[in-house]
Amino acid sequence: MQWRVYVEGDDSNLKRLAILLHGMDVELQFDTEHPYLHGGAISEAIDAHSALERASELLPRLNAAGRLDSSSFRPVQVGSRVSDGTGPHTIFARAHLLGEGHLFAGGDPGPALTAALLETARGDAHFAQAVELFGSSPDLGWGDLCKIYELLEHSAEGRLRERVGISKAQEDAFTASANDAGISGIQARHAIPRKQQAKRSMTNREAREFVRRMLAAWLRK
Asked: Which residue has the higher pLDDT, 209 or 41?
């Protein structure tokens, strides 16, 4: 059955995700103006409820691909409608229209990076967990960023810096900021702020970009 699971999100993010997933096992396409996921495991579902469940399971990795492509990407969500593609359907929410362009020199690297992300996640359980958390976390707060870092560290078997090309100073700044309640607040690993702050630290925004760069570098090796 060619199930279509409709999704919701900002128009620019949906259009970009459609480009990133073009030619993949699961694609995002548009029925008139309404976006939907189809293909792969979704098509193998025995009924609409199962198709919705399978799309929900896939979406964190797809959103991770979007976030990896752009730090401004806002995760899309599964909607409340599934269609078998043969009859009329009702959409309960429409995409919000936002304009955003992408300019690339020498070709668009996004689809290739998306393919690498999905393929690597299929063969590396810890990397897959990191990717799914990267895609499903609502705000990529310190707690989730730390978990992603630890999953990558475990998967790299003690060679994370070499694997993703980061310096010890960068790694120390990230971990010190994650540990210190004076920097990362309630999500810090330690409840009491340090009397003397680390020489180098990161804001949450800088830490999100640091983790995003690590994931991208992992896939380019």
From this structure: 209
Model pLDDT for residues 173-210, shown as the tens digit of each residue: 898 887 765 555 555 454 445 545 556 778 889 999 99
Rounded distance between C-alpha atoms, residue 193 and residue 95, angstroms:
42
31 beta partners: 34
Helix axes 110-123, 204-220, angle to 10 degrees: 80
